[in-house]
Amino acid sequence: xxxxxxxxxxxxxxxxxxxxxxxxxxxxxxxxxxxxxxxxxxxxxxxxxxxxxxxxxxxxxxxxxxxxxxxxxxxxxxxxxxxxxxxxxxxxxxxxxxxxxxxxxxxxxxxxxxxxxxxxxxxxxxxxxxxxxxxxxxxxxxxxxxxxxxxxxxxxxxxxxxxxxxxxxxxxxxxxxxxxxxxxxxxxxxxxxxxxxxxxxxxxxxxxxxxxxxxxxxxxxxxxxxxxxxxxxxxxxxxxxxxxxxxxxxxxxxxxxxxxxxxxxxxxxxxxxxxxxxxxxxxxxxxxxxxxxxxxxxxxxxxxxxxxxxxxxxxxxxxxxxxxxxxxxxxxxxxxxxxxxxxxxxxxxxxxxxxxxxxxxxxxxxxxxxxxxxxxxxxxxxxxxxxxxxxxxxxxxxxxxxx
Length: 403
Prior knowledge:
34% of the residues lie in helices and 16% in strands.
């Protein structure tokens, strides 16, 4: 090996000849060839090897730390997600339990009273109910305490529900049908079926058509809310089955087809109050005013004068005074009015026969709003309950959104 040219470097080289270097040696300057070109020749020293190993170890520790932190974060997220799902399911079950309690309350109320008024148990539920690990709130509302939009159209007689003629005794049984063992002209009487919520049991007589008294009632209701009364014709056109718009402010398919996006008029009874947002002339402000005072029930469902608000009762006649009705409702009897005539006499109101026929003092349709909070879980339940002499059953149930 050639010695360095510098004397100092040569002495240092001799001193460390048989010892490992304590620091990295600088690169050597070597003259090369005829061109006297100088090139740098790096020498891999043990010091440089030790630095690479240290960096490698630090990199492995860094990657392991990142993996450990990621796994710990994923584990914590999974634990919180599982806990939230558990709380959510528990809150959902609490709301369903409150629904069962509401059905029992309504059943007991029907057995004890034939009228429905705001002083009964179903209308005075506590604001909060104590439950394990959270809080539960519920509210039962009489759906017949508001104007029924579907009363605008009066259905005619339903021939489809007429009983089928009796089978002749000498006729052969149809395929898959067993012969009549009694051999009688009249078949055995079928057991009585519960009345359907869509058919309260009142006979439908007369010709189908627009219910003019109910249309005027809705117009007076809109006037009291400072909304254009012409909107009543557009609402009536939304549910009537004919394609002809009412003059001058009705609206049928011709109006809705030119909108973007386009759609057709329902031409059937309202299913939910939220359908009003599709009717011509109903903007956000109008819907906010009208929605709390109207409902979507089967045609022919009466208005309960014991639970109806002042705005709905003021639309019964043109000469009704809202202030007098408000004072009358404050002085309502503790047990409510037992007959419609008692309310009309107390309010000094005179209504026509068709309007009076759609007034009552008892209710069959109720809505339940239940909310439960358990830990990180929250559940909202909206149920529509129907009550008759056979008990209480759920017609509709939705979680999270009323409409």
